[in-house]
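Table S2 (continued). Query chain:
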Amino acid sequence: MGRTPVRVGGPQGGGIAASPFAIANIRLFIAFRIFFNARFYYPVFTILFLDFGLSLEQFALLNVVWALTIVLLEVPSGALADAIGRRKLLVGSGVLMVVEMSILCFAPLGNPNLLFILFMANRVLSGTAEAAASGADEAIAYDSLKREGNPNDWGRVLEFQMRAQSLAYIGVMIIGAAVYDPLVVRKMAAWLGLPFQFSQQMTLRFPLYLTLIMAFGALFAVLRIKEAPLESETCTDGQAACGKSVYQAIQLTLGAGRWLLKTPFALVIILAGLLFDHIVRMIVTLNSQYYRLIEIPEALFGLIASGMAVLGLFLPRIARWLVEKRTPAANLAILSFVTLAGLAGVTFFWPVWGLLPMVLLRTAMLFTAFFVSHYLNRVTSSEQRATVLSFKGLAFNLGYGLIGLMYATLLAVLRSGNGTEAALLSSDGGEAAIFRDAMRFFPPYFLMGLLLLYGFAWWQLRRGDGYREVG
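Corresponding output:
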């Protein structure tokens, strides 16, 4: 297909460029994704909460609250974005990130009850910010590309965004873990000739301060984003919403739901993404315990996480080549093979070499995100893009929450069948044996889901008219 030149400055702009990155909203979308997701406390997430004085039970409850907030607000926020404007939701998301990080940066120590309340507020605000940003940022970027450039370049945009985010993630993992460690900070201070002595109580906030700076970067990026008018509207004020009401947002939600049920290809894409995402994300969540059992020293965990992020520098280019040169069915088969190989590989717990199956699963996770974004945007109309993308986010988070509950139940069943917890902890096999047994359930669970997916896809797409691009 021929390349459509980019009209710099919008429909009335006079300049012409050949790259999608000449579009301001595309550059700002990438910047927002980096600033919003590059959180320096990620490598020390669990121990950060505990060092503040919270218990493991409180930490688990806070994560449940965070996930529940996203699930409850995901679709309504997407519909609201389509109704009142995506930029307003993005600005709200940026403001919420600044507030949620400020709470942690300045939360007083020494009062566990007050700390728990503040951390609860942080998790609710964080979940709300995630829900508000989900779908709205991608929708406004894609519509800007359709309006000012060539939608076929969306793969290039995704590739660059994922590579840039991976580079940022590498730096975040290294710097965040380093500034959290008082010994490392003391050595850095001594090397710089600074006469300061840093305690853990001081350094535990350093990753938070750095993330607060990123929050201001995210807010600055979205404040510069311009609303992309929807294709079916001719608003003279440049606003996409044209004064739509919250009631119309509800109507958009219902309409998008009906559209998904009547659009076989879109429904299959979301269900396929749900299948791959929730299983692979669960394994990735458990990776620290897995690394320990394949004899990887804990001191290398952060380095391994950075190494995994390097995959994001070149895998997006492969994913873009696949969506351009291969059919959706062929890409589904490739993704199925990679995921199944990774799930089967982790069950063997090969010392050190067990990292290879984890690389396959990380690859599957990235391919899933790329494929779903590419295909779903191509078949969704501008007017309901943010809403449909929010349905996708809702499905993914629900799947992840359900598999988390299933996994916890599985562990309880395995533990009850192998003696008391105290006996297990004192035995040689102990919790490690239960973890190994639990991991063996993932490949057959995935295979069962894959068979159901293929059967549903065949039933829905058997007439061969499922994949129709919009525009």
